[in-house]
Amino acid sequence: HFVNTAQPMSSLPSGLGICTTAPDILYLPELVFGGLVWILVASTRVVPANPLGWVMFVSLFCFVMTFLWLVVFACGGHKNSYGWAAADCAYHFLAVTFYLSAGVALAYITFLSKVALTYRIYQINISAVVFAFASTLLYFIHAILSAIRWKNF
């Protein structure tokens, strides 16, 4: 008698599998680009405080949450459940919304203050804007691929 002992194919990778599968391979670039936004904005004067405080919150929140998400997936804490696939999708769409709003605010403040800033500070702010929108794009791609994975779960 033949007994089928094959395990179903996992749709949520764990361990080093997250470094080789889409969308999970995007965790590291998200961390790098989001960390650069955080560092660049923190290295300048935070004027005006309110919009740039939002940018700092978004970059720090997404950096910490993406790192925790990476650790959960790498350690296999997700147990390959449908709920984790949905949460992954929801988190990345939230990150897209946050980063898009932060990038627009940062670009607007940088544009308004270009004559009041020194050239070096202006260049740092422009770099932060570029990395904020690059992070938005990475999170958007991750969110779309996570939604596809969740749909096919």
Automatic annotation (TrEMBL):
InterPro entries: MAL, Marvel, MARVEL-CKLF_proteins. Its main location: membrane. It is a multi-pass membrane protein. GO terms for biological process: myelination. The keyword Repressor does not apply. Keywords: Membrane, Transmembrane, Transmembrane helix. Residues 18-151 form the MARVEL domain. GO terms for cellular component: membrane. The keyword Heme does not apply. GO terms for molecular function: structural constituent of myelin sheath. It is found in: Membrane. It comes from the Eukaryota. Pfam families: MARVEL. The chain crosses the membrane at residues 25-42, 54-77, 89-109, 121-145. PANTHER family: MAL-LIKE PROTEIN-RELATED (PTHR22776:SF88), MARVEL-CONTAINING POTENTIAL LIPID RAFT-ASSOCIATED PROTEIN (PTHR22776). This is MARVEL domain-containing protein. It comes from Periophthalmus magnuspinnatus.
